[in-house]
Amino acid sequence: MNHQTIDDRNTALTIEDFAALRENLHEQRLFRREQLQQLSAEANADADAVPERQGAAHIEVRVRLAASARMVLTDVEAALDRMDQGRYGACHLCRGPIARERLMIVPQARYCARCQQVREAYR
Ligand SMILES: [Zn+2]
């Protein structure tokens, strides 16, 4: 088996696709890391500056932002790991290929569109 070729008719990711997806993931990782840094810097600044009541709402928004940024960052890093291990683009549930169009929109996707829908329906 040639590792350069992803043998899957449905996914059909080319080497160029991989390069573009990897770059996209790297950018997202950088962006999320910076976002998290900024959020924690703001948290430190607020601890001194913002009055108690105003601070609570402020902090809640930031906590949510940080939580979602961390979640995306985890997904992005996992996707980069999968790329390094040559397992990128396969659905975690059904092991089927994740459609190319889907990966182009959500490069860190773990599930194919069908499995994602099933998961969301049972949430
Ligand atoms: Zn699936």
**Secondary structure tally: strands:** 0
In helices, the fraction of residues equals: 55-70%
Secondary structural class: mainly alpha
State the separation between the terminal residues, measured CA to CA.
39 Å
Describe this entry's structure for a reader:
This protein has helices at residues 15-49, 52-84, 100-105, 113-121. The protein has 123 residues and is mainly alpha-helical. It has a single domain (15-121), classed as DksA, coiled-coil domain (Four Helix Bundle (Hemerythrin (Met), subunit A)). Helix 1 (15-49) runs antiparallel to helix 2. It starts with 14 loop residues before the first helix and ends with a helix. Zinc ion (ZN) is lined by residues 91, 93-94, 96, 111-112, 114-115.
Write a brief caption for the model.
By secondary structure, the chain is mostly helical. It has 4 helices and no strands. It has helices spanning 15-49, 52-84, 100-105, 113-121.
Sum up the structure in keywords.
123 residues, mainly alpha, disordered N terminus
Q: What is the element layout, followed by pairings?
A:
Layout: H1 15-49, H2 52-84, H3 100-105, H4 113-121
Helix pairs in contact: 1-2
The chain binds zinc ion (ZN).
